[in-house]
Every structure is written in C-alpha cells, then in structure tokens.
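Q: What changes when zinc ion is included in the input?
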Amino acid sequence: MDGDNGVVEEVLVARTSRRTEAEPWNAQSPDNSAQNRLLIKGGRVVNDDMMQDADVYIEDGIIKQVGLNLHTPGGTKVIEAKGHLVIPGGIDTHTHMQLPFMGTFAVDDFYTGTRAALAGGTTMIMDFALPDRGESLVEAYHRWRSWADPKVCCDYALHVGVTWWSDKVGREMQELTEEHGVNSFKMFMAYKDTWQLNDSELLASFKTCKQLGALAQVHAENGDIIKENSRKLLSLGITGPEGHEMSRPEEVEAEATNRACVLANQAGCPLYVVHVMSKSAADVISSKRKQGHVVFGEPIAASLGTNGTHYWHKCWRHAAAHVMGPPLRPDPQTPAYLMDLLANGDLQTTGTDNCTFSASQKALGKDDFTKIPNGVNGVEDRMSVLWEKGVVAGKMDPCRFVAVTSTNAAKIFNIYPKKGRIAVGSDADIVVWNPHATRVISAKTHYQAVDFNVFEGMEVHGVADYVICRGRVVVEEGNVRAVSGMGKFVPKLPHSQHVYGRIEERDRANAPHKVERAAYDGPVASLNGPAPSSAVEDSIIPASSQEFYTRGPTRSGGVNLHDSSFHVSGAQVTDKSPKRPSVKVNNPPGGKASGSFW
Ligand code: URQ
Ligand code: ZN
Ligand code: ZN
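A: The predicted holo structure follows.
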C-alpha cells in the first residue's frame, strides 16, 4: 500500500497481533452522514480542569453538545464509552517526520508517523521546518508544507528553525509569523558548524521573537564543549554510543539551559526549552520559573520512559538506537524525577522528538559515534507511557495527564480551545481512552516504520480504543483506519495570552526608569591625565617588594595600572585594612560540576 499518493484508506490488523497491511478499505466519503454525526455515550469526559460523566455529540467535525440525555438526529453513529475516559486528542509538540539529517532521512514520514500517532491517541503533531545554514526560512517552510500536506493523517503545525542569523532571517521570521501561521522558532545551541548560534545571534533572535509575539524555543546544549569532548573521546579510541553521552554530560545541557534562560529574560522574551532530558536542566527551569521567568519545559516520552544506561549495552545496534541529542541520561532516577516535575507544574508539555532511523541508517556511525544519526521513536507510545509512568505510578491524576499531553500545548501555542479541550465548538479530536487495558510495546507490533522501539517490552496501561480526528473515526477498537492527506495544517497565531499576558505585565511593572537628580558639578578628571590628586598616592600602603610587584609610579606620578594590585590572599595595594575580603564560590549552574574525565 503506497501512502504517498492521493487519499487512501486502509485497515490495519488490530495491534494485538503482528502488524500486517490489510486490504485497503474503499475510501469512505468524509461527508457520509452516519460517519458525520457521532455520539460518544456513557463515558467520563476529562479536561485539564475537571472531569464529568457526559455524552459528547459531534457533527461536521466539531463538538456540538456535551452533557447527559442529549437530543441527537437520526442516523447518528453511537460509540459506547462506558468505563472509558473521553479525553482531548493528544498533541505531540515535537516531531521530525522524514527529516533530512546527518546524511540520511528519518524513516518515519508524514504518513507512517501520523498514522502511528493516531494509533496511540495523538491527533495532532507539531513538526519543525529546519532550513540549511544560509537557506531561506520561508523556502524551508514551503518545502515542509509540500511534504506534509499530501501525507498527514492528522492535523499538524510547524515550528521553524533559526539555523543561522542575518537581518534577512529576522525579516523572514516576521513574514512567517504574519502570513504563514508560525508562532514559534527553534534556536540551536548545539550542532556546531551547522545550526549552532552564538550568544549574540541568540539574543538577536530572541529580540525578534519578542517583537513578533512569537515563542523562542531552544535546543539547549553547549555545542563547543560537545565538539571538544568528542574529539578527545575519539582520540582515546572511544567510538561507540557510550561516547555520545560522555561527550555531553548533563551539566552541558544545564549550562546551556541556564544561559538560554538568562538571554531570553534579558530580551524580555518567553522561552520554551525543548527535549528536557536531565534532572539538572529541569532544575534550572524550575528555579527560573520560581524567579518569575516566563519559561516552559518540554520533557519527551523517551526521557520520561527510559534512560541512558542503554548506551553501555553490549549490542551496538541496541545502544545506537538510543542516540539522540541531548542524550538520555544514565542516572536511572531521571525519568521519575522529570515526571514529578511534570506532575507538579514545573514542566508543562510532552513531546517525543520522534526522529527515527533504522539499523542500517544508525550504522553510518558504526565507527564514530558523532556520525550516528540522532533520534528516537515516541510518537505512537507517548500517551501510554505517560499514563503508565504518570497516572498508574500515582504521580498525576487524569486531569493533569490531559494537561501535559494536550491542553498545555494548545494554550502555549495559541490554538486553545480549538484544540486541547472537550467543549462545544472545539474540534472533534477525541480519544476514548481505556485506562485498564494493557499492551506490551514492541517494534514487532508497532505501526511506526522504524525497526526499533526504545520502549521494547514495556507493559503499559492505557490504550486508545477509539480515536476521532476532526470528527472522523480513525481508530475503532484498536483498528487503525489512517487516511493519508486527511490532516490539515493548523496555523498558530502570535501573542498567545497564555505566554505573552505575563510578559506584558512584567514589562510594564519592570520598565527601567532613570533617577531624577541634580547634575554633578564637582571637578572632573581629564582623560588619560595624571591622577586627580596626590591623595591616592598617600593612601597607598607602603608595599614590601615581596608582597606586591610594583614598578613605581608612572612618569606622570600615578599608580602604574599594570602593576599587580592583588595578592593571592585577596588583599590589594590600595587596601587600608589587612582583612581579606570573604569570597563565597557558588556551584556552577546546574549543580556541582560533574567530575571531569580529562
Ligand atoms: O535536535 C533535534 O531536536 C533534532 C535534530 C532531532 N534529533 C535529536 O537527537 N534530538
Ligand atoms: Zn533539538
Ligand atoms: Zn527535535
């Protein structure tokens, strides 16, 4: 079955048995009246702020009624949802379908990737248009549109990468925001020599986002450290996937996260940190939020569901399958730690960074870990992994689950309540969620195209029994009926109230003001002239030769500024008191610096 041409519809054998391509169904007309009118009956509706026993009536792809004892027209198709939860379709904030990357392409494309998303209960993805260095951002946007529009089975939006900087880039960001439904831009602090921006470029792009009412996103890793560490590790003969994590330990992520927060805060720009992978980076975000920064953190299914010990697996293919940037962390406490912060509100959304490569593609780096295409799966299993590790584990309730898998993303990216809520007028993107059903995740049965699954063998509670996408039943009792090209591009407008409302109040309250004071009318020294008075020389403590190095006064009689005026004790030549100043050295951002291995 070729998902690349036209509208196709197919039935895939239910998940519990080996995935095979069944005979294609005849494409049902989207305006078929029985299909067009749906009643989800007997379920428990869950939104981010409340739960209620209610039925949901859908017509023309929109939710028309929510409540009990609804009056519905004849010919309405009824879905029995007793004992199930009725939740907003998941929104995956971070995917890379068919991404051209590191000399190859991500193997899950906009068809297989969005079909897998629907199978797992995700009804919208947000992908990234990533221009090559020097390429037009607008051209990259149109190229991604041309790839996605004919293939997507569910709705999608685009972030755009700022992979280089110039005034032209700033003008294109404005065009994308004002004319093409883009309200978020991703800046890279890693991938040196390809996409990495330096601090002044980051500042310029944050300033532009602020002017446009757009959200600045960052890939937060210090690319300079990564490049230097990679060189050293390879020179030591460490070429395997373990070198990938060793080249970028979590303090390298935390440092960049802190730097991005400071730069964005100084620019008065809201910040969204994508793929938060470590405790240290999460702690930075948590701390900055407590200081009042408008910053959001996005852990991903992989960082919530597995860890970086796999990089030390004896099977090269297994280890390489987990290579992504920033890497999964070998600290086994990381997933639970991130889940706790997601549950308590310090982290807000969940993506997957779904960017999949088969064994032969990963093998491009079989002799050099820096050449292993970075990326893992997640788009199909995110909802179940979150349910298992979040709700079943007792860390969050179903409302918080809805918030972090759907609603918060809709609010942050300014598509709420069209998306992210079960309410009258909202799009009918709905999942009939079976919280008691279980399944075992495996590449043998998953719908994704990739031949590996980082959650292999994990038994999870939480299965999407029915998935409705823009009012169309696309999963029925586990049978996926993906319709290529049915998904629509969803424009995201700037100035999200959820994001910029607080920015505007902070700007108003913290606007800088000068001090009104009488002008200074005392003597003013002449530039590069002699010291203003002999008082300075008189106050200088006679320095014994062994304590300070001095070359005597300058020709004009002043203190020779080139002389060392500080002693290791901390005293200095003009210091009248022998007491040494106390200096408290704080730990670097991100906690204690990990022991260096050099
Ligand atoms: O950096 C990203 O988010 C893209 C290129 C996907 N790869 C990855 O390892 N995260
Ligand atoms: Zn990234
Ligand atoms: Zn990514």
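Observations recorded in class: Residues 94, 96, 275, 353 surround zinc ion (ligand 3) (CB under 6 Å).
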